[in-house]
Amino acid sequence: MNNPMIKAEKLTRKFGDFTAVDHISFEVGAGEIFGFLGANGAGKTTAMRMLTGLLVPTEGEATVAGYDVYEQPEQIKKRIGYMSQKFSLYEDLTVRENIRLYGGIYDLGDQQIKQKSDELVNMLGMKELQNKMIGSLPLGWKQKLAFSVALLHEPDIVFLDEPTGGVDPITRRQFWEQIYKVAEEGTTVFVTTHYMDEAEYCDRVSIMVDGNIDALDTPAGLKEQFDADDIEEVFIRLARGAERGE
To answer: What is the spatial distance between Cα 126 and Cα 200, in angstroms, rounded to a whole number?
Structure first.
């Protein structure tokens, strides 16, 4: 892969005697939707926090958008968008105030922030809700806004940490339509999930089990490799193999 947007080589994170992420290696290309699949506690979020400059690795190497995770975490943060499991929005601020706040954090000018705010509320159909407190909005609206805010500064890469947790199937589908759109426009998408069906929406999928990447391929490639009907069956086989120490 020429000039990967994300590159990890034997990336490791330990907490005392516990190894949360164990020497994982992979690359992600520009405009790719890369899925990090695994059960809760598999190490997905820890790996993402290292790649976003929020957590220093114990061992290994990694670059994001060409910047080193050890030496250049601040440059990485300027080139990425990040949406956490909790959507990162301030409940006691309005829709428009949240957009303005993050515009300032991303160092956008006042005119840019006003323009982006107008564009976002119109695009999301939130004009009637723009002066409502975030805490009063349904989860699906919060999710859509949080994703859009993560893209406010037009980053090269957006990291999404289990972004569809707790929402209904229709909202999940709409969210993935948003992901497809930004990927088509050239943004690299790195998404963690424990929903097996969402792996089918990714260009490639890595499956983490107990801190290790046990499989990495396209969804079709994984199903062929494991002679499985779906990704859930692949994951179950890997998890059972790990339990047996295989």
So the answer is: 30
Which amino acid would we find at residue 175? F
Within 13 Å and on the Cβ side, how many CA atoms surround 10? 3
Return d(Cα 26, Cα 154) in angstroms, integer: 24
The DSSP annotation for 175-234 comes to HHHHHHHHHHTT-EEEEEE--GGGGGGSSEEEEEETTEEEEEE-HHHHHHHTT-SSHHHH
Which CATH fold would you assign to the domain 6-243?
Rossmann fold (3.40.50)
Residues in the chain: 246
Contacts of 23 (CB under 8 A, 6+ apart): 10, 11, 12, 59, 60, 212
Give pLDDT, residue 244: 62
For residue 75, is pLDDT > 90? yes
Residues 80/64, Cβ–Cβ less than 8 Å? yes
pLDDT tens-place string over residues 102-149: 999 888 999 999 999 999 999 889 999 999 999 999 888 888 899 999
| Average pLDDT of span 83-93 | 83
Give me the pLDDT at residue 12, please.
98
Amino acid at 28: V
pTM for the full predicted model: 0.91
Structure tokens at 80: 């990425």
Interatomic CA distance for residues 164 and 175, integer angstroms: 8
Residue with tokens 């349904």: 138
Angle between helices 169-184 and 139-150 (to 10 degrees): 10
- Work out the pLDDT band at 246, boundaries 50, 70, 90: low
Residue 89 makes CB contacts below 8 A (sequence gap 6+) with: 98, 134, 142, 145, 146, 149
